[in-house]
Design a protein that fits this description.
155 residues; mainly alpha; disordered N terminus
Length: 155
Amino acid sequence: MWLIHDYKRQQKHPKLLRQYRAQGLSDQDIAVFRQTMNEAKIQIKKWENVVKTDDTLQLIEGVTGGLKSAKKLFQLIVKNPQTALGNHEFLYKQLPTMVELIATYEDLSSVDKLDQSLLTESQAVIRNLSEKIAKHYELELTDNLEKIKDEVENG
C-alpha cells in the first residue's frame, strides 16, 4: 500500500523528481528528503493555524515575519534539496521547537486563572524564536545573493 501511495506522490511532481535526480539525489535520498519536508510542511501549517486564531501571535508575526520566513525558506529548500543540509537547524531544531512552543502557549492561554507572567514569558520566547527563523532566512538569501554575484563576476 505504501508503495502505491508513494508512486502517486511521485506522479504529482515528476518535474521535481527529475530536478532532484539531476542534482545527484538517489531514490532513497529523495524519499528521506520528501519525508523531512512533509514533516516541515505539517509543522508550518500547525504554526500558521494557531497564528490565525490568536491576536497576540498575529502581532508577533507582524513584527518578526517568522512564519512568512519559514514558508519562504521551506520553498527554497524544496527547490534546492542540497540546501537542506545547510538548513538542518531550521528543519530539525527551530521548526519543531516553534510547534512545541505554540502548543504550550495554547495550553497556557486556555487556563483562566493563570499567572500572566507565564503567558508573557511564552510570548517572548515565541517572538525570539520567530526572529531567529526570520534571520535564518535572511542569511540564506544573503548566501544565495553572494553565490549569484560570484557567478556573474567570475564567468
